[in-house]
């Protein structure tokens, strides 16, 4: 199963201006940051491609206005979370005040508070329910009740098992600035460390709670306002995933249902890489319990093409080194702000990275990765002076994970990295470099 859809911006953002007089239900609405291609993409995503754009736009504006009014009435009327019995007028007054201040993901839900993120949160529930206001309202109600029972607002302050921190890590962002969460489940193969996590139902529930904790931590990095990233990308690395234990599969199924029911439109993409064969069958069974909209967020990378798939959504400088990117832990040389260049290598051909250096007394550092690997490379320094000798920095060898090297320049010239591709497939290379003034060690010794 593979859904290969890449929407650049699948959210239509509506900004609502408040008119606070005697009638809080009167709102003036205007559309912000609208692009034609984004609108067409959302039409197709909503299954409404045959509906005229003007009519669809009007429908969504009307739905948002109706949803806002319904939320205002439910909060001010004290029935958003169902009917409650209060023992005293003081308790009633306190409960009403708490309801007026109710929020979701840090965003106030009372429309008349005029918070810029309120509409964006409401639109997520509307979109999940195809802009049916009653269904979206019920979904939001169930979400708030579930969060109260699950104590979701408290989970952020709970201490996570240090071993599980190796499973779930928040690193980098995608091409549209959305935060990316990497889940490396292969570490669960160590039964001595992780086996006890699934011994009992209570421990399984705790593991599920830790997964929700990671989602809540990811949400803290979102910006619920026009132009800000309001979704997250999840990368699920299933390499060396332990066998299909019943409890693990049940946890996975339960998590996806929770994300679908209580975190609508929070997940932009679920990218599955290095999946074992049996996982496809279990995913197909689990998919029966998911909506078509949520299922469309899953992207399966074909065997051996994890890096190529990830690069469709994440730039090389933001892709971790272990997944074929340029981003390394605690990198002292480069950051995501450094410019990355690209070149291609033809089938059964070669190409060269050339780094010209006009000044002496500097150290040049270069970083490169080849999509698909299976190439050889060599590195050399070629001086501008024809009377000087070439210096072989690295003799030809097979490329491993990536290229990272440095060389001190004592005369003008250029660093040349020659990459040979003997395969029948075109290769793509991403690289970057920088130079920094350096005092030679022999001078320091003097």
Automatic annotation (TrEMBL):
It comes from the Eukaryota. It comes from Dillenia turbinata. This is CRAL-TRIO lipid binding domain. The keyword Metal-binding does not apply. One of its GO terms (cellular component) is membrane. Keywords: Membrane, Transport. SUPFAM superfamilies: CRAL/TRIO domain, CRAL/TRIO N-terminal domain. Pfam families: CRAL_TRIO, CRAL_TRIO_N, GOLD_PATL1_C. Residues 152-331 form the CRAL-TRIO domain. SMART domains: CRAL_TRIO_N, SEC14. InterPro entries: CRAL-TRIO_dom, CRAL-TRIO_dom_sf, CRAL/TRIO_N_dom, CRAL/TRIO_N_dom_sf, PATL, PATL1-6_C_GOLD. The lineage of its organism: Eukaryota, Viridiplantae, Streptophyta, Embryophyta, Tracheophyta. Signal peptide: none annotated. One of its GO terms (molecular function) is lipid binding. It is found in: Membrane.
């Amino acid at each position: 199963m593979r859904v290969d859809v890449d929407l650049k911006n699948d959210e239509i953002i509506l900004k609502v201006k408040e008119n606070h007089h005697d009638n809080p239900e009167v709102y003036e609405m205007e559309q912000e940051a609208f692009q034609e291609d984004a609108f067409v993409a959302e039409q197709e995503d909503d299954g409404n491609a045959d509906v005229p754009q003007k009519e669809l736009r009007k429908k969504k504006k009307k739905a948002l206005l109706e949803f806002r009014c319904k939320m205002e009435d439910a909060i001010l009327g004290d029935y958003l979370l169902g009917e409650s019995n209060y023992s005293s007028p003081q308790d009633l007054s306190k409960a009403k005040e708490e309801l007026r201040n109710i929020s979701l993901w840090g965003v106030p839900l009372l429309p008349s508070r005029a918070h810029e993120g309120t509409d964006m949160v409401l639109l997520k529930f509307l979109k999940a329910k195809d802009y049916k206001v009653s269904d979206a309202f019920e979904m939001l109600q169930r979400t708030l009740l579930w969060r109260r029972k699950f104590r979701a607002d408290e989970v952020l302050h709970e201490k996570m098992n240090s071993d599980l921190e190796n499973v779930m890590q928040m690193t980098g962002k995608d091409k549209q600035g959305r935060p990316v969460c990497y889940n490396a489940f292969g570490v669960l193969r160590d039964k001595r460390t992780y086996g006890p996590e699934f011994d009992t139902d209570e421990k399984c529930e705790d593991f599920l709670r830790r997964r929700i904790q990671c989602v809540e931590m990811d949400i803290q990095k979102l910006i619920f306002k026009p132009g800000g990233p309001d979704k997250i990308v999840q990368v699920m690395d299933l390499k060396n995933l332990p066998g299909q234990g019943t409890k693990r599969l049940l946890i996975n199924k339960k998590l996806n249902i929770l994300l679908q029911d209580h975190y609508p439109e929070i997940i932009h993409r679920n990218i599955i890489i290095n999946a074992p064969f049996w996982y496809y069958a279990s995913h197909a069974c689990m998919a029966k319990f998911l909506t078509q909209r949520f299922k469309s967020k899953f992207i399966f990378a074909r065997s051996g093409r994890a890096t190529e798939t990830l690069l469709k959504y994440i730039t090389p400088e933001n892709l971790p080194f272990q997944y074929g990117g340029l981003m390394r832990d605690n990198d002292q040389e480069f950051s995501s702000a450094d410019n990355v260049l690209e070149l291609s290598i033809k089938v059964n051909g070669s190409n060269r990275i050339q780094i010209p250096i006009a000044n002496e007394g500097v150290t040049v550092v270069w970083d490169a990765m080849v999509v698909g690997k299976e190439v050889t490379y060599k590195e050399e320094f070629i001086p501008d002076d024809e009377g000087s000798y070439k210096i072989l920095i690295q003799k030809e060898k097979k490329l491993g994970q990536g290229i990272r090297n440095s060389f001190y320049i004592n005369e003008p010239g250029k660093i040349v990295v020659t990459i040979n591709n003997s395969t029948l497939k075109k290769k793509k290379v991403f690289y970057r470099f920088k130079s920094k003034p350096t005092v030679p060690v022999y001078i320091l010794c003097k």
